[in-house]
Design brief:
The chain is mostly helical. The chain has 20 helices and no strands. The longest helix is centred in the middle third of the chain and has 33 residues, at 142-174.
Length: 426
C-alpha cells in the first residue's frame, strides 16, 4: 500500500472537513466571547469581588500561556492535532460546567474561581496551538490556506461582534451564571463538530531532534522565529500590542459599568457595535494584501488598529459613545486585516515539522502578554483608578509600530512583494 493511500490510521482531508473545523471553532469562540461581559460582572455581582479582583479573571484564564505555550508546541508536533482538539474541548466543557455547579451551590470562592480558570486556560493553550497547526494539513493550496485563515478569523471577528451583543441580554435576563453555562455547552458542540472530521493525520515520525529531548525542540522553535527576518518583527510587535491592549480590554468593561453607569445590555451593545470592524477586515484581508503587498498591509493595518485603540480613552474620557464605538471599529478592522496575513505568513515560511513549535512561540509571546496586561491593569486600577488603566492601554499600543517596521518587513515596504516562502536567517 502506498504512503498516500487512505487507511484507518491515515485518511486524506475531504472537502467538508474544513467546514467542520470552522463550525466547531466558531461555536466555541462565540461561547468564549460571552465571557468578556459575563466573567467580570459575575465576579462583582455574584461573588462580590472588588473591581481590581474582577480585572484578574483574564489573568487566570491566560496565565498558562506563559508556562505551557512553548512545551505545548513541542508536544503537539509529536501528536495528531485532531485528538488534541477533542481533549481540549472536553476539558473546557467540564471546567465551565463545574464552575456553574459550584457557584449554584454557593461554594465558589475567589481562589477556586481562579483555579478553574487556570485549568481552562491550560486546555485553551493546547487548543490554540493545535488548530493553527492542524489547518495546513486540511488545506495545502497557499491561496486556499489564506482564505481558510480568513474564514477562521471571520469567526473570531463575528464572535467578538455578536458575542457581547448576545451576552448583554443573557446576563441581564438570566444572569451571568446561565451565560457561563451556555459557554460550557458551546464546547460540547465544538467537540461534536471536530469529532465528525474524517481526516486522519499520519502518525508523526520520530526525529533525531525529538530523541534529544524537549528543551532542544523548544530551542529550535525559538531560534527559527528569532532569526527569521519577517516572523521576529511581526511577533515582537504583536507581543507589545497585546500587552497594552490587554490593559485596555481588562479595564474597559469595568470602566463603562462603574464610570458611565452602563448596564450589561448596554455594554454588550457597545462592544458588539465596536466589533463590526472584524468581519469587514477579515473579508478584505486577502484583497488588501494582494493589492499592496504583505509588508505594507501589515504596517498600515497596524496603524489603523493603533489609532482605534488611542481613540477609546480619548472618547471614553468625554463620555461620547459614538466616538468610542468608532475607535473600536477601527481597532477591530486593523486587527482583522493583520491577523490572517500574519498567520498565513507564519504557516507558509515554516517547515511542517517546526510549525507546532513556531505556533507555540507565537502563543507564548502574544497570549502570554494577556495575563501580564491583566495584572498591570489590576495594579493601575488599585493605584490610580480605571481611567489611568484605560489611557495606559490605549496609548501604549503605539509602541508596537517601531517594533514591526524592521528587517524584512521594513525592506518589503519599498518592494511590495510576497514574503519569502523559505526559511531564511537574518
Amino acid at each position: 500500500m502506498s504512503a498516500t493511500a487512505p487507511t484507518k490510521a491515515h485518511r486524506p482531508a475531504a472537502p467538508g472537513d474544513f467546514w467542520k473545523l470552522w463550525a466547531g471553532q466558531s461555536t466555541s469562540l462565540l461561547g468564549d466571547s460571552f465571557m468578556v461581559v459575563a466573567l467580570p460582572l459575575f465576579a462583582v455581582s455574584v461573588l462580590h469581588l472588588s473591581v481590581a479582583q474582577a480585572a484578574l479573571t483574564p489573568f487566570a484564564l491566560n496565565a498558562p500561556f506563559l508556562v505551557l505555550s512553548l512545551p505545548a508546541g513541542a508536544l503537539i508536533d509529536r501528536r495528531r492535532r485532531r485528538a488534541v482538539l477533542l481533549a481540549c474541548n472536553a476539558v473546557q466543557a467540564g471546567v465551565f460546567g463545574l464552575l456553574v455547579l459550584i457557584a449554584w451551590l454557593h461554594q465558589l470562592s475567589f481562589a477556586l474561581l481562579m483555579l478553574l480558570l487556570v485549568i481552562s486556560g491550560c486546555a485553551l493553550v493546547f487548543f490554540q496551538v493545535a488548530y493553527t497547526t492542524y489547518l495546513p494539513s486540511l488545506i495545502s493550496d497557499p491561496d486556499e490556506l489564506h482564505r481558510g485563515n480568513s474564514r477562521l478569523y471571520l469567526s473570531e471577528s463575528a464572535s467578538k461582534t455578536l458575542g457581547p451583543v448576545a451576552a448583554g441580554p443573557l446576563v441581564s435576563l438570566l444572569g451571568p451564571l446561565v451565560t457561563i453555562a451556555v459557554n460550557a455547552g458551546s464546547f460540547l458542540v465544538s467537540f461534536a463538530a471536530i469529532k465528525a472530521i474524517g481526516h486522519r493525520e499520519p502518525e508523526p515520525e520520530a526525529t533525531p531532534v525529538e530523541r534529544e529531548g524537549m528543551i532542544r525542540e523548544i530551542r529550535e522553535g525559538l531560534s527559527f522565529v528569532l532569526r527569521h527576518p519577517w516572523l521576529e518583527p511581526v511577533l515582537s510587535a504583536g507581543a507589545i500590542y497585546v500587552f497594552f491592549f490587554s490593559v485596555l480590554e481588562a479595564s474597559l468593561v469595568l470602566y463603562l459599568h462603574y464610570t458611565w453607569g452602563m448596564s450589561a445590555g448596554a455594554i454588550g451593545l457597545v462592544l458588539g457595535l465596536a466589533g463590526l470592524g472584524y468581519p469587514v477586515g477579515s473579508l478584505l484581508s486577502k484583497r488588501i494584501m494582494d493589492r499592496i503587498g504583505t509588508s505594507r498591509a501589515l504596517i498600515l493595518s497596524l496603524v489603523v488598529n493603533i489609532l482605534g485603540c488611542v481613540a477609546m480613552p480619548v472618547f471614553g474620557s468625554v463620555g461620547w459613545t459614538v466616538g468610542l464605538i468608532a475607535g473600536g471599529i477601527m481597532q477591530a478592522f486593523g486587527d482583522a486585516v493583520f491577523g490572517p496575513i500574519s498567520l498565513t505568513l507564519r504557516q507558509r515560511v515554516t517547515p511542517p515539522g517546526l510549525l507546532g513549535r513556531v505556533n507555540s512561540v507565537q502563543r507564548f509571546l502574544l497570549w502570554g502578554m494577556v495575563p501580564l496586561g491583566s495584572l498591570t491593569a489590576s495594579a493601575l486600577i488599585s493605584l490610580d483608578g480605571l481611567a489611568t488603566a484605560l489611557w495606559t492601554g490605549g496609548v501604549g499600543t503605539a509602541l508596537c509600530l517601531p517594533a514591526l517596521a524592521r528587517r524584512g518587513v521594513r525592506r518589503g515596504w519599498g518592494t511590495p512583494a510576497e514574503a519569502p516562502h523559505d526559511a531564511p536567517g537574518n
